[in-house]
Amino acid sequence: MIKIILKDGSIMEMEKGVTILEVTKKISEGLARNATCGEVDGEVKDLRFQLKKDCNLVIHTFQPEDLQGKKAYWHTTSHIMAQAVKRLFPESKIAIGPAIDEGFYYDFDVEKPFTDEDKANIEEEMKKIIKEDLPIKKFSLPKMQALELMKNEPYKIELIQDLPENEEISFYQQGEFIDLCAGPHLQSTGKIKIAKILSSSGAYWRGNEKNKMLQRIYAISFPKASMLQEHLDLLEEARQRDHRKIGKEQELFMTHELVGSGLPMYLPNGATIRRILERYIADKEIALGYQHVYTPSLANVNLYKTSGHWDHYHEDMFPVMKMENEELVLRPMNCPHHMLIYKNKLHSYRDLPIKIGELAHDFRYESSGSVCGLERVREMCQNDAHIFVTPEQIKSVFGEVVKLILSVYEDFGFNDYTFRLSLRDKNNKEKYFDDDKMWEIAESQLREILTELGINFYEAEGEAAFYGPKLDVQIKTAIGHDITISTCQLDFLLPQRFELEYIGEDGKAHRPVVIHRAILGTFDRFLSFLIEEYKGAFPVWLAPAQVKILPITDTQHQYANQLKEEFIKKGIRVIVDDRNEKIGYKIREAQLEKVPYMLVVGPKEVEENVVAVRSRKDGDIGTMSIRKFEQKLLEEIELKNG
């Protein structure tokens, strides 16, 4: 007999050699029907896997919060799709077909890209394979036999040749289709209920642009048709909220091939929003004692060798530029510059904390396939700061940063967010600075600080910066994605590498600790998030144009422009639509532009010195005096409402 400890802590005793599926049946038939895979002592296994010793067992199902359970389901469907393609296109060569966070894809080497008709036929063939309910069987082979089996699949041959010696080479077979795969998979193709092909695109083999371009098909599958429809509705909502689509419609930013991939240009409307964001956060920081600086976007490569970034980060940096007797590089981050600013003069313990902030332009070498609108760019502007503290000040200053984050989120109306304590992966010596004692001190201190501050958090290994642990604020986007906005990092390493000091109360030299923090992250990504969060309908205080004045006829143009001048003096952003168009057309267009307020002015409004107010949110709200409307608008801007 063996002991099986389940996720809820309960213990089952069963015969040695029992499969995970048999365990699920013992618990309940419902669980057996819905289970997709199991996790045995941290390793994901098929339900057919035999348990031969005492273990911890987690049973996964297709549930919204169970990504591993969904991935087993989707990975099985990726094999069904590959089988369908091989049936319809026998000469095609198969590459890889992993499950991803939202479905799966498979890469194929085919003569020409898949057409819409091809994809419809593949989907129909997938339905047939599901209906056939083919058993899915796993087997393993020695390397030479594996190579012989896959002799007509060059991409599988390459993958097998790259496997370490003595590693299991496993395959899964369903009907006539065999694929090199580590699993896990469901027991048969009939376990899949409904699948949908979503899109296709080109993709370089192994993500290397020097390799051949393959054809990638993205798809998804679900146990219920209603779940598929919900997902398709979510995709449509995501399409409507896509910041690239809205950015083009509202003339916020543009890109051009002559400028380069990942290098967006802000148009006047987008530049207005970004300027408001920059002034907003700078004013908040100045009120809290931050001192803002400007540092160059170029630096000698030795700066990053001193900081350690070159060893851990140089692959994400642009190539070195050799000039006379110097080697220069575009900076990917600002911390080394700020270390030197601190070191520029002697500091006493009385001076600390010293808060150095910068709205800094940084450059990172993102591949052309990963750049995306404002969300992922090659040049970004960071809301960055570094706070130099004594060890005794860490807790209070860290708490101040958290309060600043919460204050900002309140201004923007953010409610759905969590705090993540990002730790190093102890087994990855290459990714993180190798100093166990330093890491243990930093991680335990940060954990203690968060606990004492009463912050609910979860821990994530492998998400730390190379020099220290950090607090990341994970926020849910309007379409359900989990992204990092704000971050606050504890750093004992860079002060050591730059030999930073302050004179303590005892008259001796001491080493400060650095708190790295970014409240808005990069303005580019933050703006892309806001565009999608507000669906382009920015609150009054952020809207590029807060008011649009709509004269009914030419005779009201003078009055409309007088209003415009008065509003501008009050700091209100206003435009006049003086085109020779019908008023209904002007109103509809202003609504599409999502301007918060429209002021319709006709002969009556001119005569009575009033405005007819239409709200983007509430529609027609009646006639107001100019002063009353100004007061209403300025109050909304001040309170950041609307």
Describe the fold and architecture.
Helices cover 36% and strands 28% of the residues. It has 642 residues and is of the alpha+beta class. The strands form nine sheets. It has an eight-stranded mixed sheet with strand order 18-22-23-30-27-26-24-25. A five-stranded mixed sheet has the order 2-1-7-4-5, sandwiched between helices. Strands 8, 9, 10, 14 and 15 form a five-stranded antiparallel sheet that branches. α3 crosses α4 and α8 crosses α16 (523-534).
Quick overview of this protein structure:
With 642 residues, the protein is an alpha+beta fold. The protein has 20 helices and 35 strands.
Radius of gyration: 30 Å
Taken from the alpha-carbon principal axes, the silhouette is: globular
The termini sit apart by 66 Å
Low-pLDDT residue spans: none
What's the arrangement of strands in the largest beta sheet?
18-22-23-30-27-26-24-25
Oligomer: single chain
Largest sheet: 8 strands, mixed
Proportion of strand residues: 25-35%
Helix-strand makeup class: alpha+beta
Mean pLDDT: 92
Q: So how many helices?
A: 20
Kindly state the percentage of residues in helix: 25-40%
* DSSP summary, beta strand count: 35
